[in-house]
User: Fold these one by one.
Assistant:
Number 1:
Amino acid sequence: MDIQDRYKFEENGSEISFMPNYSFLRTLVWWMALGVIVLPTIIYYFMDKMSGDQFKIALGLWAIYMVYFLFDLFFRIPVKFIFDKSEKCIYRKLLLSKKLMNFNEMTYFINDERGGYYYSIGKKRNQFVKNYRISHYFSGSKASNRREDECIERILCPILIAVGIPLNQLSEQ
C-alpha cells in the first residue's frame, strides 16, 4: 500500500487533507471480526463449564473489548486534518470541522513516547500542552526508517511547503 493511500492523502489547489489513522482501519476490522465471531463462540462453548459469575465476567470483558473497538472505529479512524491554503487555517474534521490554528501559529515536532516516536503539530508556545499526532509511530528499525523517510517526503514536506515552514528546519530535527 502506498504511503498516500495509508494516510488517504489528498492535495488539490486549495487544500491538503489526510487521515493519519486511516491505515489502522484494516487491522481494526480484523480485530472486530475476532470480537464478533470468535470470542462469542469460545464463550458459548465454555458456557456450561463456567459458573454464572465467570460467564458474567467474560461477557463484561467482551463488551468492553467491543466498545473500545467501536470507539476507535467511529471516533479515531475518521479524523481528518485539512490544511486550507485559501484561508491559511488548519482544521480537524470528525463529524464537524473544528479550526485548530492558523498557518502562522503552527509548529511541528517529534514526540517521543513508549519506545517510539511520531510527528505532531501544535500551536507555537503551546505545542506541548495541546498537540495533534499527524503520523504513525516509528521505532527506529530499518523498515520503520524507510516508512518515515517516505512519510516525510510524500506527506510532511507538502504540508510544510503549504504552511510556509522552510524545509531546512526538517533536516535540523
Number 2:
Amino acid sequence: MAIARQHHTGNRRLLAAAAAAATVAALTAGCTSGSKNDKNAAGPSVSPSATTAAASPSAPADPEAADRAEAQAAYTHYWDVLTAAYAKADPDDPNLTKVATGNALVQTQQDLANFRTRGRVFSGQPQHSNTGITFKADTKLKTAVITDCLDVSQWKPVEKTGGKEVQLPSTRLLRYVNTVTAEKWSNGWMVLEDKQEGKAC
C-alpha cells in the first residue's frame, strides 16, 4: 500500500502546484491591467515645443506709436492749412500761426505775399506718399522729422482773375522729397522747418 500512498501524495502536490500557478497568473493579469489603466488615466502628452510656444512673450509695443500717430495727424493738418492759404494767396491767414512757427511760418508767409502781389493763387491739391517719421534724440521737446514724396503735379498756380494756368519751367520737379521738422508743444505739434530736398522721388 506504500505505492498507493505515494500516488495520492503525488496527486496532492500536482493540485497544489496548479493552484499556485493559477494564482500567479491572476495576479500578473491584474498588474498588467492596472498598468494600462494608469497610462490611460495620465491623459495625452504635451510636446515641449507647444509648451515653449505658449510661454513665449508677445512682441513689445512701439513706445512711440502714440507720438507717431499724433505727428502724422498734425502733418496732414499742416498741409490742409497750407493748401487753403495758397488757394487764396493769403499770408495773413490766422490758421498758419496755429500750425507753423519760425522759418516755416516766415517762408510760407513771404511766398504767399509774392503770389498775392502777382495776382495768383493755387488750384488743386498736393499729394503725399511714402511718409516716414523719426524722432530726434536728446531734445528738450519731442521733435519729429517727417519725410515724404510730395507730388505737386495737380497743385498748380493760376491767375486769380480768369483762372488761367501759369506756365512754369518744364524742368522743375513735380515729385520731390520734402522734409518737415516739427516740435510737440503743449497745444500740439508745430512745424519749425519745411524744406524741399531737390531730389526727385
Number 3:
Amino acid sequence: MIGYCRVKTVFDYGKLLTEPAFRDALEVCRWEGYARTLADMLILVEAFLRPADEPARTQAADALAALYPALLNQDIPPHRSDWKDQEIAFTERFAQSRLASPQPPDKVVSGTAKLLHELVPIHDRLKRNDLEVILGDLRLHTLAMHSAMQKRFRREPLLRALLQAPSD
C-alpha cells in the first residue's frame, strides 16, 4: 500500500508522511491488510496441502486454522485492543473454504483488495476507480506466491510434519 500511496500522491508523499493522521491511517490499512492477507495465505496453503483422506484432511485443516490466531496475536497494533473480530471472520471463512473445492489463487484475494481499497488513506476522488488496480496488484503477488509455493514446498513431507505436530 505504500507504493500505491506514493504513486497516487507523487510529490506530496514526503509531506504526507509528516502528517500523523496519514501515518496512523496507513498503519491501520497495513495491519488490517495483514490480518486479511494472512487468512488468504492459510486458505491457499490448506488447498495446496489438502489430503484426499478425510480424517487427515480435517486434522491438517485444524492445524492450519490454529496458526491464524497464533500468528495474528503476536502483535496487537495501537488501533486495536484485540483481533477477536478477525479471528471470528477467519474461522467462518476458513470453515467454508476447507469444505469447498479450492479456489484459484487470484480469486481468494478479492475481499482483501476491497478492504485495502476502502482503508488506503487516499482521498476518494483519487482512488475511486482503483479497486481493479489494487486487485490486479494483489492478484499478481498472490499468483507469484502460489507459484513459488508449488515449486519450493515439498508437499508430502510438509503435510506429514503438519499432521504429526503436537496440538495445544
